[in-house]
Write a structure and sequence with these properties.
This protein is an alpha/beta fold and about 130 residues long. Helix content is about 15%, strand content about 40%. The protein is built from two helices and eight strands, in the order βαββββαβββ. The strands form two sheets. Strands 1-4-3-2 form a four-stranded mixed β-sheet, with helices on one face. The chain has a four-stranded mixed β-sheet with strand order 5-8-7-6.
């Protein structure tokens, strides 16, 4: 259903560093960048190389609502690896990896807080 998602952030480079360090275990990487004012817009992809997650500089006042984004992981080990990468990125772990049967059997995920306060998740639908 979703083609791509763009998130406005307070500091593109800080958010980029967070996402690349934390979600490298699921293949997240930078694939395109272009300048916007004194910052950049950056397109990130998974293993397929398609930039479907975008970071751009915030255009308005501070965010007042939490955004939730779930990134697909190929297996439980990748979810665990995202969790293991979180402390190196200085990331708050909202919920460590576990199965969430209230969502559906086999739903295995970790939930983290990104630099802008958003709830981001790595999930495997086993």
């Amino acid at each position: 259903m979703l083609d791509h998602l763009g998130v406005q952030v307070a500091d593109v480079e800080a958010s980029l560093a967070f996402y690349l360090r934390t979600f490298a275990p699921i293949g997240m990487r930078e694939v395109v960048r272009f300048p916007v004012g004194d910052s950049s817009v950056v397109g990130l992809s998974g293993p397929d190389g398609v930039p479907d997650f975008w970071l751009s500089p915030a255009a308005g006042a501070g965010e007042t609502r939490e955004l939730h984004v779930g990134f697909q992981a190929p297996d439980r080990a990748a979810v665990d690896a995202v969790h293991d990468a979180a402390p190196a990125a200085g990331t708050e772990v909202l919920h460590p990896p576990r199965e969430w049967p209230e969502y559906h059997p086999g739903y295995y995920a970790v939930f983290l807080r990104d630099p802008d306060g958003h709830n981001v998740e790595a999930v495997h639908h086993g």
